[in-house]
Design goal:
The protein is an alpha/beta fold. The protein contains 17 helices and 27 strands.
Length: 580
Amino acid sequence: GGGAPSAVSRSRISLSHVSSQPRSSILLAARGGFAAASDAYPSATISMHDTPREAENPAASPVSSAVPAELVAFAAKMRADGQSEAAVAAFGEQYVKLFRGETGLIRESDIEPVVDLPTLDRLRSDPSGSPAESADLSNLLSRTVVLKLNGGLGTGMGLLGPKSLLTVREEPSVCFLDLIVRQLQHMAAASPASEMSRAPLFVLLNSGATATATRSHLETAHGLTLGVGWHEIMQSMAPKVDAATLLPAEAPDGTSVEEKANLEWYPPGHGDLYVALAAPAASAVDAECADTGEEGVSALDALLADGYRYAFVSNSDNLGATLDAQVLAHFASSGASFMMEVCERTESDKKGGHVARTRVTGLTDSSDGESAGALLLRESAQCHEEDEAAFQDIGKHKYFNTNNLWLDLQALKTELDARGGILPLPLIRNPKTLDPRDKKSMKVVQLETAMGAAIENFGNRATALVVPRTRFSPVKTCADLLALRSDCYVLSDDGSISLSPQCDKPPVISLDDRYKLVDAFETLVPNGAPSLVACSRLKVKGLVEFARGCVFVGTVEVLNPSDECKTLPAGVYTDTTVEL
């Protein structure tokens, strides 16, 4: 996610029952303070309202040894911006780690590879594992939330609006969000009302940068009104840290208010999902509590009170991440609190994160999770340079996180309650410059978290399921987008997109760097995407425009050495290099 904070930056979910429910009993944070909810710091109770002078003087405060004075300035800045107490507390926990010099690195000597995991293919081949026999499917679906991460602007692809509104198929034009809605509507229509009391609940984790455009599109294109056809919780924003002083980073004098917000704030990663769920919901209850100073119910409490037990969480740009009934039934019957969908790593995945287990002396890996260390997630930013070779060893660390997660909401609430409303997540230190466009601007640190890292909080109540690549089809680059728009993918009536039966695997596509951003990419394909169903590899170098009717077969390279854009004529190009 990205963009400046706005009036909708507060965490909210609009569920119809909320106003009639008891007020939340969840321990989000003490009014005016918070407890650092990390087992590593059980005594680090931090008052976010201490003055810097009190925090610096051990005699003035019994907890001052755990309180970096600089933290008070961050708390004040976040509260002034309207960030929730849950967001303030979560930031504080990560800041304490930064202040104490923790790197967030996970050393190879502290982990074990994951040897074996259950697979979706095995489940599908086992007749006894069918949804009808493993669980009451209709009941499960009516108690399930489909939660899509929708806070991102796709700035890496040059987008100015929500990435979920990017056109992924043409004729007719549809975006990620359109297909997600179609998938959910198809599931609801396929199950008669007599079999399913209600459809799965559709929830988006929006940000201040995506909420307005998303709401407008859903209402205009699908007639879905917030609070009726869909619901939202809001991602928080965090202040950037001046790398030199560890104080809140400040934009130069004379910077406009809007630009100042853009420069000084950032979204703290999708680990913020748990903060958004724990934060008070914007509802009638807030109005009831306004005079008493009490907090409204949290979004998580609201969902549980309305009878929802399970949540399927995934990225909005991963069209392979559909609500699979068999996976849901497997998760529910397993009794697990947390399940991560993983895929087998290939050479192209070796620089990405992987799952592992904590190393426990005398224990060995076991697929049942009872006799081995807890599952954990190690991202590339958490790998020490000395461990790089082991990190990239796909034979040793075989599985990566798809970011398709399954949560038992009641178990999540229990975990949050036990930890003071904060789910401890490993720190990811992300060094940046204050202005991403100016590498000479102030050096800052962004404190980020990954939602998949929560897996280690659940010990042997967490599991993972190996799924095929069809459940992992994200669009991260314009090359991915070109493949998705082409005929090597097929769009079904139910909103799902899958690889064409005529295509063994998607082509490897390499585009000139000038097509890194979407606006430039559109100049390559103004007449529509070429046929790639029989293409294994495509490389484009130089200023090129594809005419309508271009068909690529095998390995094809298109080159234009001149500075003038040239059109590749319609035709079939087979295992060839074309110089325009």
